[in-house]
Every structure is written in C-alpha cells, then in structure tokens.
Protein 1
Amino acid sequence: MNENIQFFQAFLKNPTSVGSIAPSSPELARAMVKGIEPGPENVVLELGVGTGAITKQLRNAGANSENYLGIEIDPSLVRSLRGSFHELNIVTGDATSLAEIHRRSGLGRVGYIVCCLPFVSLPNEVGGKILGEVEKLMTEGCMFRMYQYAHGYYSPSAIKLRDFMRKRYGRSRRSPLIVKNIPPAYTLTWFGR
Ligand SMILES: C[S@@+](CC[C@H](N)C(=O)[O-])C[C@H]1O[C@@H](n2cnc3c(N)ncnc32)[C@H](O)[C@@H]1O
C-alpha cells in the first residue's frame, strides 16, 4: 500500500497517538539522521517508527540488526514495516517501557535516540513517563533528537518538554526550519552528560 495512504489510515484510527497526517518528508528524515553513525555500542533507538520514513535514512546510514531497534505501538504498522525492513529489529511496543524493551533486545549501549513521538498530542502522563525512560538511557554522549512542528512550537506541552530536557541536558541544538515537510518542523538535539 502507498505509504501516505497507510499513514493517513493510521492517523484516522488513532489521531492523538499518530499526531500528524503525513509521514516525515525526505528532507526532515535526512535532518533527523544527520551525524548518526550506528554501531554495536552506539545503538540507535527509533521511537514511533510509523511507516518508516526515517528508518529508510537510518538504514542508508548503516543501521542493521546489531545496532538498531525500532519501537512502534501500532501492530499493523509493525507488520508492514517488517516486510520493508526485514533486516532491522522493529518491535511492537510502548515507549513508556523503553528501557525494558531495550534490555530484552540484548543490544549494546544506546548512542542515539531518534524520537518521532507526538508529545504535543499524547496525554501528559504518557509523555512524562516516556521522558523518564529516556533519562534512564541517556548516558554521557548519548544523542537524543526529536522534531517539533513549527505551529505547535510554543504550545504548553512543547515548551514543557523543552524545559524538561534543558534542565537535564542544557540548551538544545535546533536546526533551521525545515519547510519541505507537512507541516514545517525543526529538529532539536541534546546530548547526555
Ligand atoms: C508522528 S508519527 C511518526 C512516524 C514516522 N517516524 C515519521 O516520522 O514519519 C508517530 C508514531 O509514533 C507512534 N507512537 C505513538 N505513541 C507511541 C508509544 N507510546 N510507543 C511507541 N510508538 C508510539 C505512532 O503509532 C506513530 O506511528
């Protein structure tokens, strides 16, 4: 099935969990993956794999079964992802159990967390729980990258999330606005310390 149609169907089924009507554009996906060099002790965790828009770029950057773990809550998306990315570990799971899912995978130290979860539309307690899990894995030098849509950038939940991260990891590195995406978005990057 066409990726855009599949994504839109997932959105209609669960709008708050999917949080967007279209998958990330190639421009946003490339910005999300910039500088990432996966390795057995620099494992990439991708949270909210969707239809795999960012996964494709991660695979181009060297993601494989020894250095990549994708977590997606929607089992029907995971079934289809496994067809397209059979060489990658993609599991049906909830990012609120992130540390335990990583532990069970048997993979090494997490070097990169590529987060595509729609914090602005997720319930506050779910977002808070996920950030608590992220904290468990953010060892020194671990990179956490997410995107935030320009139109929601100053919403209370987006500001709260940035405050949470700033208190722990300092100011983010923000990309220029990526206009070739529906809707336009920034990437934000922090490093564990
Ligand atoms: C905005 S979409 C991003 C999809 C894709 N990465 C992209 O950039 O096009 C968010 C994805 O996160 C998934 N998701 C939402 N809550 C989740 C959770 N608690 N754990 C894992 N995945 C979740 C949704 O099902 C959806 O596929």
Protein 2
Amino acid sequence: MNIYEQKAIPSIWVTWLSRLMADETQCVWSIWFRTHFKYEKLTTNFDSAKWNASHRTLVNDRINLLEAAGYTVYVEGENRFEVLGRDHLVRVAGKPDIVALKGDEAWVEDCKTGQRKNSDLYQMLIYLLLLPVSLAPCQGLCVQGRLIYRDEVVEIQAAQVNEDFRTQFRAAIAALSNPTPTRKVPSLHECHFCDISSGYCPERIENAPNQSIENHDLF
Ligand code: SF4
C-alpha cells in the first residue's frame, strides 16, 4: 500500500529549488509532490555510500583548512535552517555543509563531488539570500559563498543575489507551493533516479520504450 500524508505546510528543500531554478528538472511534478506530501521513498540506483565517503573527505579537508586559518567552523546539522514565508503558507529549508566565521567575515561553503551543475550556483545564491536572516551565527553579517570542487574553489559574492535572482526565486516558490499540481513529464532518465514509486505516480517509466523505426525512406 502506498501511504502518503499531506504536509501541514508545503516544505521545500533548497536543493529542489535550485534544480528547478536552473532548469535541470523536466518533471517539476516530482518536486511539487515532495513539497506537499510525505511518502514512502523508493530506493534509487544512486550509490549513496560512495557519495557519502567522498563528500565526507572533502568536507573534513575544508574544516581542517579553515580551522587552521583561525575560523570558527559550523558543520552540516549545526547549519540547518528553515524560513517560513511571510503568510506562513510555505517553508524553505536547507543545510549547507560549512559555515565559517572570523571577525565580521562569514563564509558558507558547499562541497561538490559530482559533475558541476548550474544548480550549484543557484543553491549557493539561495544560501546567501536566506542565511543572514535564518541562521543565528550569520545574522546581520554579509555572507559570501564558496563552491568547493575537488579541483577548484569558486567564490560567489553576496552582490550576485540581485533583483533578477530574487524574482526567479519567488516565482519558483510560488510554483511549488501552489496547491494545483505542476506538469508531470515522465522520461526514462528522470524516472530512473526518482524516488516516487508507480503507486504514487502511475506514469512512471521503468523500461525503455521501443521507439526505433526502421521502415521509412526519410534518411
Ligand atoms: S516517476 Fe517519473 S513521472 Fe513520476 S514523478 Fe518521478 S520523474 Fe516524474
């Protein structure tokens, strides 16, 4: 049986928002459903043990480096934040890997072990927008960001949180928090990595459809 329960308030993780804003998800319904419902998740093909190990190594390397440079470092669970919308109809939550403070300097860092994606930038910009109002150690400070890749560190300035970004951010939240479901776009690739079972989503594609056509004279 597929049990699901409507959340008291639609709740959006920053990672979901950033994928939507970066246009990296075709099936927006999958994010809309997660925003509105608690459900039994499918085990996907993602190798989380391998990801956890390499991510942990990268985070630990950064902690050591920052502490050696005299920063006070806050890690993962210590950085969990939630921001309720003004009308209390939606909540945005996140958990950046590292927050580092020294004097009036505040940095938020997120460690990335996979392929670089545009959503990495959006994720950081959302942190820069929300952390100064939601995470106690950052309140009142101008927070700057760093994306930590294995071979490069990319700095993101607070000034990049401009009016265009804020407009896009508000539009993405409005789309996901709307009670009307967004469009469902089943595809083999996205369904393969989606944790929503066919019990909740009968359109889920499990196997590649045979779309090969041979008998034609087009080319
Ligand atoms: S299973 Fe496929 S169609 Fe259903 S929500 Fe997930 S990605 Fe969308």
Protein 3
Amino acid sequence: MNNIIEAKKISKEYVISKENIHQVLKGIDLTIQHGEFVSVMGASGSGKTTLLYNLSGMDKLTSGNITFCGEMISNMSEEELSKIRLKKMGFIFQQSNLLKNLNIFDNIVLSAYLRKEESRQIINERAKILMEKTNISEIKDKDITQVSGGQLQRAAICRALINTPEILFGDEPTGALNSKVTNEVMNILLDINNSGTTIMLVTHDAKVAAKTERVVFMSDGVIIGEIILGKFNEYNNNLKERENKLTNWLLELGF
Ligand SMILES: Nc1ncnc2c1ncn2[C@@H]1O[C@H](COP(=O)(O)OP(=O)(O)OP(=O)(O)O)[C@@H](O)[C@H]1O
Ligand SMILES: [Mg+2]
C-alpha cells in the first residue's frame, strides 16, 4: 500500500438556501503517497482549506470517497474518525491554536495524555526529543503569551507530532511568520518529512511551495494542475531553479 490518501470524485457543497447551493469542491481526485511532501496552492476562496478539512475527515464530504491508510474514512462515524485523527494525523494552522491556560510543554503532551495509551514518562520523553529537534527546549515552562510567533509555531509542530502521526496537515502554518522564521519552520518540516512523515501543506507562498516535492494547484473547487519538483534534499537543492520553475508554471496557470 503505497498511497496514504486516495480521494475519488470528492465534492463538498454548502446549502445556503434552497436556491443557493455553494459548490466548493467539485469532484476532486487526489492521491498522496506515503512519505510525500505535497503543497496546495490557489487563489483565496479556491477551496484549499476545505480540501484539507475533507481529506482529514474534519469535515464531511457531500459525495465521493476517501481512503486513508487503506481504510475508507469517508463514511466513518465521528467517533471512529476522531480516533484515527488523534492517532494518525497531526495538524498545524496559521495561528498555533495552543491553549492559553497551559504552558508550552503541557500543550505539547496534552493529546497524548488524553489518549491514555502510553505512560506519561514515555510521552514526556518524546516531547523532550521533539522540543530539542525544534530548538524550543528552553521555553518548555513558559506561558504561551511569553514566547515569539516562531517559537509558538514550533511548539504547534511538536504538539502535532506528539502521537507520531502518519501525516501532518498544515494550513498556511507559515502564513503569519516573517521570512527568516518561515525558513526555520520549513527546515523543520523538511526534516520531519525526511524521517518519513507525509506532509500536506496549504500555502500562498511560492518560496515555501518551492521546497516541497509536488505542488497541486486549485482553482474554483477543482485541481487544475500539478508540478513535480522532487524532494528538496542534498542532491536537489537548487532553490532558485525550483522557484523559477514553480513561478513560471504558476504564471502559465494565470496565478
Ligand atoms: N461553512 C461554509 N459555508 C458556506 N461557504 C463556505 C463555508 N466554508 C467555506 N465556504 C466557502 O468555500 C469557498 C472555499 O473556502 P476555503 O476556505 O476552502 O478557501 P481557501 O482556498 O482556503 O481560501 P484562503 O486562501 O482565503 O484561505 C469560499 O468561497 C468560502 O466562502
Ligand atoms: Mg484557507
């Protein structure tokens, strides 16, 4: 089983009134392989977030089906889905969404504690390693109001990875960061992907997408094209060339 996600003819509509039905996803086919690093680009309102929410089962499709890790998730109950999400999926958003009344460390470990499948000692150890990897060990006891935006986002990455998910979904996780911090966060994501975690990232930033393996482009609820840049690694690291290739392709698509 090479594919982690297989989405077939997925559609999502919002019924605003009897006469006004808003079709947001219009029969999308998308396959993501285990270990891939895919980004999704497209104009505001084209349906990127909706796609991510539907692929991860956070939102219910109107029609079509989705297989995740070999299991059909599109008609699962919310209870089954939330188990899969907790165990196999991690999420990062534009704003870190950390809980205000918990310090950084507790925010990171909370979902693993709630799962009650491992001892707290094992979870704490994993959190420690993640914090070292993302270079935020020194802020572990801090309140979330006492740290920088970049540190918050790195904590959000640790939180998303605490249950060692199969896939990490990011909805513009660098959208609120300056370019230096964006680079730092991207380097972390590249590391995570290199160690085997699949990543699907929504982004407006061509510089971010240029570091991903495949870029999918959405327009008005459909995927109108994709470009394969290959893994960004020691053999394929000419960033200028990747950026040019991507930018030219985006221009061709009228973006
Ligand atoms: N709950 C909802 N009810 C009705 N329409 C919705 C709902 N959620 C999203 N939409 C509409 O679906 C379309 C796609 O929204 P979505 O958030 O997926 O776009 P996006 O590509 O992520 O945009 P952005 O780049 O601005 O984040 C938009 O036209 C939006 O107004
Ligand atoms: Mg969005």
